Every structure is written in structure tokens, then in C-alpha cells.
Amino acid sequence: MLSIDQSRDRAEKLVERAVAAGADAADAIYVAQGSSSVEVRMGALEAVGSSEGEEIGLRLFLGQRSASVSSSDLSDEALEALVERAIAMAGEAPEDPFAGLAPANRLHHGDGPAINSYDPQPVEPKDMHERALAAEAAALAVAGVTNSTGASAGASRSVVALATSHGFSGAYSSTSHSVAAGVIAGEGAGMQRDSAWHSTRFLADLDAADEIGRLAGERAVARLNPTRPRPGKMPVLFDPRVASSLLGHFAGAIGGQSIARKSSFLLGKLGERIFAAGVTIIDDPLRPRGLRSRPFDGEGLSVDRTELVADGVVRTWMADSASARQLGIAPTGHAARGVGGGPGVAASNLYIAAGPRTREELLAAFPEAILVTELIGQGVNPVTGDYSRGAAGFMVRDGAIAEPVAEITVASNLLDMFATLEPGSDLEFRRGVDAPTILIPEMTVGAA
After folding, report:
1. 307/296 Cα distance (integer angstroms)
2. Alpha-carbon gap, residue 336 to 260, rounded angstroms
3. Which residue ranges form the domains of the chain, and what is each CATH number?
């Protein structure tokens, strides 16, 4: 895999080619990735995988016309043809009054903050094999587990470089390590399955494989013999495993492109309190070892920790340069880009801050409630905020987790859910989007 400097040089040279060919402006993104994995099932080796690849994407402008192209062939001949094709495509494209590179005065300069996302420790297939076996063995050892759907361990590394024709050039590298296990509990028609996984930037931060496997087994066994609760209005708690999905709906709704298209249920809500007082939602791209950390955004802009919601009030949209021009605001450093097209908008390490009450206190807040541990389907309307999803989890009575429930739906409207939700104090940073246990005092519960 190319070094940071070599990767940056690749992107810079493609931009130079585009400008020399007649482009008024251009940017290029280079991505190289390598990964390896080991999969086992019932103690036997099922698969060993290894892959490496590199791609480069070019976006160029002829006035207000633009085109984006990409290639996995990085030979001089292929890149020359890539530029020619992009020039021809841009010449036929419609004019876009909002098109263009990011504002030059907002570009990131210098080496950038240390996000500490690269683990230099080498990873051996033998070690990954042992981790996968240990995870599965621990899961199968849980009483009530009857079969395995497999366990795996993996590692990857990547480098991303971005260059623009108006002065930006940067690159960063990252690694990841992971272990996952899935098992089946019970027999026949009563079988239930569940899983557990963990992913980190550094191997030293990865949970022990046997702990991951044991958790997968315990989760599967706990789901045996589910019932259906009575339909009607009921408090619903979202376990951290699924609570982060609520932040995903929020992030999509404050994306500049959704706002500019008037296709968001949060349209017109900037500066308004849509969450309860005290609720804070933060995007932190600079968290050391964060799974979505980055020293600059997809257009080369500086990034920083941002309070998207403070004391329940929406403080900002997330906008790339094009949507920011449409909205008449400055870009916010949330542009995200792959090699296959122009920038979109995405959060980085997104989380809702912990609340004052513990998970146990939230569980005991009502005589009866439902704890959701799995969500099924995509029943969310991003324009209206209407929310209805299949779910599974557990009944909660007098603060104690009781029998499992399955084949249910939980429904409401995201505006109502946001206005009343309460985060617990059990926040942990384990994913790219994190949330503690979240209590919604009232939702409609029905049969799936």
C-alpha cells in the first residue's frame, strides 16, 4: 500500500492533469484499502480472505458544469483517458449555479490534528483464527445454545488522500480490527438467533474474543419463548444496540441536501427546541481512535467538534459547499465523499450525551414498559417523521427485565419522540454513532 506522501502525490497529479486538459477547477480523491479475515463454524475453518485495491476519483468543472469519474486502473494511459472522459461529460452537463469547490478561505492547512487512527501492529492470520475460534467456543458453551451461524475475525487498513486545484492537499491512514459471533438457541420452531461484535481502530482496544462470544450466546438464549404484549400505548426503551438509529434519522434530517430539497421533517426547525431541555447531540470528528474520525472533510475543509443540538435546540444544519450555497450559509465541514461521485453530507463520530438517570432508573421509571433490542425494516418517512418499525426485545416490569417479546411494531412520530426522549447515563463510545439507553415515555405498540 502506498505511503501517505505517495497517496497525496497520486491525487495531486490527477488534479494537475485535469487543469492542464482545460478544467477550470478540479479535485481528486484516492483511496487504497487492504483487508484480511478468517471465518469459522463449529470449530472448523470456513474461509480465509484477503484483498487489496486502490481507486481514484476525479471531479472537474467547466464553469458551472461538472462531471465525476473514477477508475481502479491507475496507469498513465487510463488516467489520461479518465480526464478526457470527464472533460467530455462536463461539456454536456447542465449548468448548476451552486456547483464548485469549497471556499478557499475555509480549506484546512498544515498536518492536521492527530486522530490516532492507525495501528502499526502487524496482524497474523493465525491470531485472527484463534480469536474467531475463541469467540465461537465461548458462545457455544452458553447453556441453551444449540448451533452456530459462525464467527469471524478481521483486520483492515486504508489510506485516503484528497487534493484540489485551489490549494488543498491532505491524506490520512487508518486501521480496524474486529471480532463477531452468531449463534442459535433452542430447537425447531422455537429457535432464536442473536450475535455480538466489536470493532476498533487499535487491536489493544478490542474486547476479548471469549467475551464477545459469551455475549452472543447469552443474547440468543434470552430470546427463547417470546410472547406478544397487549397492543396500545406504552413506554418504550431503546437499548444502546438500537438507540443509535434514532441519531441516524436526526442526522439525515439536518443534512443540507435534505433541507435544500425541502424533504426533511425538520425543515424550519433550526434554532428551535425539538428535544427536551438538557439534551445535547455532538459530532466529534477529532476523537482519538474514533471509528469515523477524520482530520478534514470530503472537500478539504477543517473539521471540529460540533454541538448539533444544545439544551434541546437545533444549532446547525450539516452542509457541504453545494447545499450551503443553496441555503445561504457557510459549509460546516461535514462533506463526505467516495471515489464514485461528488460530495454528500455525513456525520462523523456522532453521539447523544449521557443523561442524569442510570439505565436502572429508566427501566424503573414506569410500572411496565418494553425494552427494544432489535429493530426490523425501514418504516421511517424522512419527510413527515412518521415512524413505524418491527421490533423485538423484552418486557420490563417494576424495573426488572422480564420475558422476551417478538413480532411487534413500535410507532410514533420522530418529532414527538425527540421532544420527550430521555437519554440514560450509560453512554459508551463503541461505534461510529453512539447512544445510551433511551426512554420514550409513550409509543404505540402493536403486532407486526
Report:
1. 17
2. 17
3. 4-220 (3.30.2290.10), 226-245+354-447 (no CATH)
Cα dihedral 318, 321, 325, 329 sign: positive
Which has the closest alpha carbon to 57: 34, 32, 88, 77? 32
Spatial contact of 372 and 445, defined as CB atoms under 8 Å apart: no
Specify whether the CB–CB gap between 20 and 60 falls below 8 A.
no
Question: Per the structure block, which three cell numbers stand in for 51?
Answer: 484483498
pLDDT digits (tens, 9 = 90+) for 338-359: 998 889 999 999 999 999 999 9
Q: How many helices (H) and strands (E) does the chain have?
A: 9, 19
Q: Helices 4-20 and 76-92 sit at what angle, rounded to 10 degrees?
A: 50
Q: Hey, how many other C-beta atoms are within 10 angstroms of the C-beta on 314?
A: 21
pLDDT digits (tens, 9 = 90+) for 294-313: 999 999 999 999 999 999 99
**Residue in this structure with the C-alpha cell 496482524, named with its chain if needed:** 123
Residues constituting the chain: 448
Average pLDDT of the residues in 151-164: 97
Grid look-up 476498533 returns 200
pTM of the model: 0.95
Set of cell numbers at residue 224: 427463547
Q: At a CB cut-off of 8 Å and minimum separation 6, what does 35 contact?
A: 49, 50, 51, 52, 154, 155, 156, 157
Would you state the cell numbers that stand for residue 116, as one nine-digit string? 490516532
Between helix 125-140 and helix 209-222 the angle, nearest 10°, is 30
